[in-house]
Inverse folding.
């Protein structure tokens, strides 16, 4: 049994820390700087990296035949531009703000390409601010960015079945600051 509490009744803390959110799938990325519960800056980047109706990124086929075909070369060039644009945007935004955390969702293969791009990202691979999104993320769109940011700013409280209702109410009030 879950007890829910309306978040609008909970006092909002002022001066919440900034965080940088980056969601990457093959050919599509969404970036945002959040200040508390608000998305201050956001951008969705799309490039032609995936063969239509096949769903696989061209960079996964570098060891196979066909990489010299015209379509393949276009997708490979767009792949390089994709990671460059992500890194340039991240560099620009992180110079303007100093986020407490950098929260990301990306496959290990694409994460490696991000750090091998001509323009390096403004953070190291082992940066202590890096945290992985603890959520299944769909294609990075503005709506998915908002959903992920909202999830990261929310909390969930589960009680085991043996916890009395009075104790639950007491815990919820203590957490909510009532």
């Amino acid at each position: 049994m879950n007890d829910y509490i309306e978040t609008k009744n909970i006092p909002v803390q002022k001066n919440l820390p900034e965080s940088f959110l980056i969601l990457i799938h093959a050919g599509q990325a969404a970036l945002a700087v959040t200040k508390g519960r608000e998305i201050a800056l956001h951008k969705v980047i799309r490039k032609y990296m995936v063969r239509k109706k096949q769903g696989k990124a061209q960079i996964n086929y570098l060891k196979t035949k066909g990489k010299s075909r015209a379509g393949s070369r276009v997708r490979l060039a767009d792949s390089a531009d994709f990671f460059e644009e992500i890194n340039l945007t991240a560099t620009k935004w992180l110079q303007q703000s100093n986020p407490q955390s950098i929260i990301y969702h990306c496959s290990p293969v694409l994460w490696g390409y991000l750090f091998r791009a001509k323009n390096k990202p403004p953070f190291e691979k082992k940066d202590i601010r890096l945290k992985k999104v603890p959520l299944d993320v769909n294609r990075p769109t503005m709506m998915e960015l908002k959903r992920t940011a909202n999830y990261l700013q929310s909390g969930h409280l589960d009680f085991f079945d043996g916890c009395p209702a009075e104790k639950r109410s007491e815990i919820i009030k203590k957490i909510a600051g009532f």
Observations:
- The first helix runs from residue 70 to 96.
- The first strand starts at residue 18 and ends at 25.
